[in-house]
Amino acid sequence: MPLHRGEPDPLAPADVAGPDALNALAESAQDLSHATTMQDVQRIVPTAARCLTGADGATLVLRDVDECLYVEEDAIQPLWKGRRFPLSACISGWAMLNGQPAAIDDVYADERVPHDVYRPTFVKSMLMVPIVVHESLGAIGMYWAQRHRDTTFDVALARALAASTAVALEHLRMGEQLTRSAQENARLAQEVERRRSTEEDLRELCERDPLTGLLNRRAWDMALTGSLRKRRQPMYVALIDLDQFKAFNDRHGHPAGDALLRRAAVAWRGALRTADVLARYGGEEFAILLASCSAESALDIIDRVRLATVDEQSVSIGVATWDGHESADSLVSRADQALYDAKRAGRNRVVLAS
């Protein structure tokens, strides 16, 4: 039916204040550039879309694999916030798949539109623009309650908003990737530290005597072999034996004997230098490795150990000086012979191997 003079065309585009629209677009782009969360983007985009185009409603749609997820909206009546539609069955999906806007002045005359979904809404006309970076990330929908025909300027504004939205979404994606990478690096660092700690704990268990906390026989053998390999002269090996320990155990019981060994280990460790090695050789027998000291100093240190023995107990000690060539077994064997000589000579003394 022809229009009377002065009667507005219902499909005629509304007058657009170009500078105002461009200013609004610039403000929206700036707001999106400062967005740090998806909630920021969801808050900004639908409201900006309505403001730029004079629409009665707007939605932000994100692509989720093969579905369109309507994550946010700003409209005069509810639309589809929170709902999902197959990518192939909605106009936002069409815009994403084709990478181009869909400007529709009559939603019920366009076969791309699922009419049953739109009937409960106020929508008569719409504009859907894709959000594209390297691929379609989503779309922005703008809707009118009356028939509306979009101008080239409307579409350009909407596409510019979509471009700013694409940049914001890409920045968020990159930020999330960096955060995940940082979290993964932190997790890997924690795992490495946990394993290192576990390995140290296991090594500690393998090298420490559980009763006294001193090095065990295995760790002692390794320490002695390593020192001989380095040829750290002069070097001395001492073997210590608690005198009459079996009688002490029989008289006081094994728990008291264990307590004596622990206290003696602490006392002897306090009589040695920091670099000296003290180990539980086996039973009530202990071993000491001294390096980088004179024979006189070595014997003084060993005698301090003898005098430090607790609970009025006494010890016999045999000491052997490494000649720079003999094996670890030979060196220990000579210290053991000197220990035997100390016991045979009356105990509670230090004897230097010949």
Characterize the structure shown:
- This protein has 354 residues and is α+β, with helices and mostly antiparallel strands.
- It folds into two domains: 18-178, Beta-Lactamase; 217-352, Alpha-Beta Plaits.
- The chain is built from ten helices and eleven strands.
- The chain has a six-stranded antiparallel sheet, sandwiched between helices. Strands 8-9-7-10-11 form a five-stranded mixed sheet, sandwiched between helices.
- It is rod-shaped.
Count all strands and give the number: 11
How much of the sequence lies in strands comes to 15-25%
Radius of gyration: 44 Å
Indicate the mean pLDDT: 88
What kind of assembly state do the chains in view correspond to?
Answer: single chain
What is the domain total for the residues? 2
At a glance:
This protein has 354 residues and is α+β, with helices and mostly antiparallel strands. Helix content is 48%, strand content 20%.
Architecture blueprint of SSEs:
Elements: H1 18-33, H2 38-53, E1 57-64, E2 67-75, E3 84-86, H3 91-98, E4 102-104, H4 115-118, E5 125-132, E6 136-144, H5 152-207, H6 217-230, E7 235-242, H7 245-252, H8 254-271, E8 277-282, E9 285-291, H9 295-308, E10 315-321, H10 328-344, E11 350-352
Parallel strand pairs: 10-11
Antiparallel strand pairs: 1-2, 1-6, 2-3, 4-5, 5-6, 7-9, 7-10, 8-9
Helix pairs in contact: 1-2, 1-5, 2-5, 7-8, 8-9
